[in-house]
Amino acid sequence: MSPIIKYLTSLIPVGFLWRLTFLNILIIVVATAISGWAIYNTACFLAAGVGGLDGQQQQQFNSTLLNYLWIFMIITALTGSIIHFYLIKRLIKPIRSLIQSTEQLRLGHYPEPVTDYKYGEIGQLVKQYNDLIAQLQKNEAQQKKLVSDLSHEIRTPLSNLNGYLHALKDGDIIGDKKLFSSLHQESKRLTQMIEQLEQLKEWDLLSAQSIVKKEPYEIENLLSQCAVMFERTRKQKNIPLQLEVESCKVSIHIEGIQQVISNLLENAIRYYEGIGPIIITGEKQEKGYRISITGPSKPIPDGEKENIFRRFYRLDSSRSRITGGSGLGLAITKEIVENHHQGEIGIETTINSNTFWIVIPN
To answer: What is the pLDDT of residues 132-156, one digit of tens each?
Structure first.
């Protein structure tokens, strides 16, 4: 690049607003100059041809016309440039706000939403940017809560294990079968919690995808397979099972619904209290296919029916630790049903049983 071009380029303003204004003023000036030149020559030609002017009059006419044209061109260029600068400044105001907002974000602060601009592509950009900031804030809040909940949930079993192991090492207590069984149970619960957190992370990642792979599947076979997986556990605890399933092909994410049924069935076995079978029911309804799992248990209070689907939430912490619950199974179940199948999930209670149900839409 030659030094002259470099020098001329250096004269061009750096800011977007000024660069755009400079470019448009240049275009206005050039267009006005060309128009003025054309008007001047046309008018002079017509005056010479039909005006009947002598040489001095023609020269005076040309000079006067040129002066007027210069005045009009300068006024036009100035007025056009000022109006253009004002309109462009208003037009790119949201972009300047976006730049300031991203600067705050770069410094680690969540900015206030950019003032909504409703028109055209810039409006769409502002809206999507505001949505992105809101989503980032939501994700960070969830991550902080998850880490906080996880720390709280892991601290107690780890403290128990460390305390007992330390006491065994120092000979303060003597291990027996019951103690080792309790420590093993605590270790299993920690392992299960970590595994369920992994599952939750996978389903969270999957929920970010716009398309979830589903395929028609015979729901009766799927429920039977899930029931078989828990047959050994049921027999050990002497819990009968009853299947009342209506045959139907349903479009589902197979692994997801298997996970849902397994979680609900495991829950029914874990908190089984009373007599009678666990009942798995499947039936076609107008709005979809309804699956319910009913098990004898202490009834869940009405005020807790929403809370039990929250991550790490437990009705009775001490009882859950004894039974091995991590407080994540129902959260995973709700995530799969609502976010991956756009379905519904709920619970119904009687004085001696709880029924968890899901509806998979047609």
So the answer is: 888 888 878 877 777 776 776 677 7
Tokens for 137, please give them.
């804030």
Cα–Cα distances in Å, from 331 out to 10, 53, 256, 259, 312? 61, 96, 13, 12, 8
> Running DSSP on this structure, what letter comes out for residue 116?
P
pTM: 0.55
- Angle between helix axes 219-229 and 254-270 (nearest 10 degrees) is 40
Give the contacts of 50 (CB within 8 A, at least 6 positions apart): none
Task: Identify which of 126, 144, 122, 123 has the alpha carbon closest to the alpha carbon of residue 134.
Answer: 126
β-pairing verdict for 278-284 and 241-245: parallel
Report CA 129 to chain centroid distance, whole Å: 13
Q: Which two tokens stand for residue 339?
A: 């976010």
Enumerate residues 6+ apart whose C-beta is below 8 A from 313: 307, 327, 331
d(CA 220, CA 173): 52
Alpha-carbon dihedral angle through residues 251, 253, 256, 260, given to the nearest 10 degrees = 0
